[in-house]
């Protein structure tokens, strides 16, 4: 897929300085640019590389004026960084612009789908599924019975969506994610043998949610596990049954949230955080990586540690912890003085 400087300038509303017919087919860092590549210069620390880069086209700010000879064609824009990001988004959309139903694949009875569906080979779509417009379902994906998928949503290869799940519009579910598997519900009898508690609820994912690769969201025992709009989940996260995650909350990799916990809106949760079940985490809470959360947290708190403490309390305590051997030695010395 090739683009000329003139075409790129048209997308970015920029000005070409150099050859408008210069063609590129790949992206590169400015210091690693080669012929046929497109790069950008936004940070002045990298300005030296524009005089040596072999990139065919470079996006720069309108204020940039070269001090030495350059070989690259320039596209001048208001903000080089934002323009390059916009171009990446456009490139990604073009790259993912697929449609049609590949064979072999299975669409069961009662299923309806909108315009421009892409269904990759070896996909299975169950009964009575409702799929919106411009949905892309990549190969080897399973969609169970009675699932609803909104407009412009993407399910990448190998996603598993269990029955009754509802996924909103503009969502992205990455490879290996499992949506709607059974919650972890077992009851022991008098002999200590565990029996399964049926999990008959579902998962509801609202609009513009991203779910990372190999993340698992369990169906509710009763009712719904709910991921509100704008939530961003990293790879390898476990969301248990009946959890609710509020709008625009972001959670980093390897975090686990136990059953029936409610997480507020606009929270930021670091990687490898463990959160117990049946608690409430308020709006705007920040939880540092590797924290263990064992009780409810009010709005706006910043916490760290395991079990988690207030952020400032943890940092103060950690200073003392590092000095603990010296503190013990001082106490022992004082004891000896008192004894004498």
From TrEMBL:
Keywords: Acyltransferase, Lipid A biosynthesis, Lipid biosynthesis, Lipid metabolism, Repeat, Transferase. SUPFAM superfamilies: Trimeric LpxA-like enzymes (SSF51161). CDD domains: LbH_LpxD (cd03352). Its EC number is 2.3.1.191. Residues 23-89 form the UDP-3-O-[3-hydroxymyristoyl] glucosamine N-acyltransferase non-repeat region domain. It comes from Flavobacterium suzhouense. Signal peptide: none annotated. The active site is at residue 241. PANTHER family: UDP-3-O-ACYLGLUCOSAMINE N-ACYLTRANSFERASE, UDP-3-O-ACYLGLUCOSAMINE N-ACYLTRANSFERASE 1, MITOCHONDRIAL-RELATED. It is an enzyme of class 2 (transferase). Coiled coil: none annotated. Catalyzes the N-acylation of UDP-3-O-acylglucosamine using 3-hydroxyacyl-ACP as the acyl donor. Is involved in the biosynthesis of lipid A, a phosphorylated glycolipid that anchors the lipopolysaccharide to the outer membrane of the cell. GO terms for molecular function: UDP-3-O-[(3R)-3-hydroxyacyl]-glucosamine N-acyltransferase activity. This is UDP-3-O-acylglucosamine N-acyltransferase.
């Amino acid at each position: 897929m090739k683009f000329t400087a003139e075409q790129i300038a048209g997308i970015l509303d920029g000005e070409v300085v150099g050859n408008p017919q210069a063609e590129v087919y790949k992206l590169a860092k400015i210091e690693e640019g080669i012929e046929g590549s497109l790069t950008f210069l936004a940070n002045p620390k990298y300005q030296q590389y524009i005089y040596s880069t072999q990139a065919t086209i470079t996006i720069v700010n309108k204020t940039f004026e070269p001090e030495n000879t350059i070989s690259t064609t320039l596209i001048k824009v208001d903000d080089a960084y934002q323009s390059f990001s916009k171009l990446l988004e456009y490139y990604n959309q073009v790259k993912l612009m697929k449609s049609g139903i590949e064979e072999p694949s299975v669409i069961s009875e009662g299923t309806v789908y909108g315009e421009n569906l892409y269904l990759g080979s070896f996909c299975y779509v169950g009964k009575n599924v409702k799929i919106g417009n411009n949905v892309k379902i990549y190969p080897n994906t399973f969609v169970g019975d009675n699932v609803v998928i909104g407009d412009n949503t993407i399910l990448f290869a190998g996603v598993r969506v269990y029955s009754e799940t509802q996924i909103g519009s503009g969502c992205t579910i990455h490879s290996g994610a499992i949506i709607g598997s059974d919650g972890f519900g077992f009851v022991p009898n008098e002999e200590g043998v565990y029996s399964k508690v049926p999990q008959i609820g579902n998962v509801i994912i609202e609009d513009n949610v991203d779910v990372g690769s190999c993340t698992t969201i369990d169906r509710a025992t009763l009712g719904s596990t709910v991921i509100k709009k704008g939530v961003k989940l990293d790879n390898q996260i476990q969301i248990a049954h009946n959890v609710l995650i509020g709008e625009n909350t972001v959670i980093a990799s390897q975090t686990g949230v136990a059953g029936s916990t409610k997480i507020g809106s606009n929270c930021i949760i670091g990687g490898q955080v463990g959160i117990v079940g049946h608690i409430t985490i308020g709006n705007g809470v920040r939880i540092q990586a590797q924290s263990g959360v064992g009780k409810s947290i009010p709005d706006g708190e910043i916490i760290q540690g395991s079990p988690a403490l207030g952020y400032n309390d943890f940092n103060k305590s950690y200073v003392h912890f590092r000095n603990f051997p010296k503190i013990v030695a001082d106490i022992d010395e004082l004891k000896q003085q008192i004894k004498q």
